[in-house]
Write a structure and sequence with these properties.
This protein has one domain. The chain is mainly beta. The chain contains no helices and eight strands. It is 0% helix and 44% strand. The structure holds zinc ion (ZN). Zinc ion (ZN) binds next to loops.
């Protein structure tokens, strides 16, 4: 399964986006959106005990933390171009292992 979460930055300054549980920090440019993508090999999301809950978001004054409840995460820009693949790709069930 694939889940996508669009996180927009409506402000004038870059906004911090943290992706947990990997503690990965990314900056969303002003007036743009970033897309957090997560995958799960099954019909459930292993990072949560509730069903149909691929993401959780915690908003603070100048940052947002997104918990991705799948096996991996990817960040792309609003056009779908992947801008962060990280070291987590070997754990991605949507891609063949090297
Ligand atoms: Zn993945």
């Amino acid at each position: 399964m694939t889940a996508r979460l669009v996180v927009g930055n409506g402000g004038q300054e870059p906004r911090e986006l943290s992706v947990e549980p990997w503690a990965d920090v990314h900056w969303i440019p002003p007036k743009q959106s970033s897309v957090v993508v997560t995958h799960s090999p099954r019909d459930s999301w292993p990072g949560t005990t509730r069903g149909d809950e691929p993401f959780q978001a915690h908003h603070r004054a100048d940052s947002v933390t997104v918990w991705a409840n799948g096996h991996c995460f990817h960040i792309s820009d609003q056009d779908g171009n992947e801008i962060l693949a990280g070291d987590y790709i070997p754990a991605c069930p949507a891609r063949p292992r090297p």
